[in-house]
Amino acid sequence: MRDKKVTFLTQAAMIAALYVVLTFVFAPISFGEVQIRIAEMLTVLPIFTPAAVPGLFVGCLIGNITGGAMLPDVIFGSIATLVGAAGTYCLRNTNRFFAVLPPIVANILIVPFVLRYAYGVALPIPFLMLTVGIGEVVSCGVLGNCLITVLNRYRTRIFSRA
Prior knowledge:
The structure is a single chain. By secondary structure, this protein is mainly α. It has helices at about 1-25, 25-30, 50-65, 70-90, 95-100, 100-120, 125-155, 155-160. α1 runs parallel beside α3. Pfam families: QueT.
């Protein structure tokens, strides 16, 4: 029992750290009206381990705080990632193309309002939904599916249960 908890916490911490690192390495394109947050490709990890759900939430939270995001962005951006990761976990046994939809939809519905009301971006909400959606399709849809393909080969080694 103890080994399972340690494995869960270790996986969650590693995923959170990886999310933060990817957010900072790609910081110029991770924030703003037009963003492709490469770290969001990690939202496919709940397909492999439930530890990814809290790991992604904490990683997004830390990435937003240390990246200088406004408080509403820290809160609601992290919630969008949490909702997306939880949705991916719920759809983990379906078609992989369906499993990547929750983070895309969650960010399309939440982030444009954060951009408008936290940062005062004057662009229309539907346009912000489009730009955020394109970025999410690239990061979650395209890169996320590439990550799924690679990780499927090593699934039992990387995500073994204690």
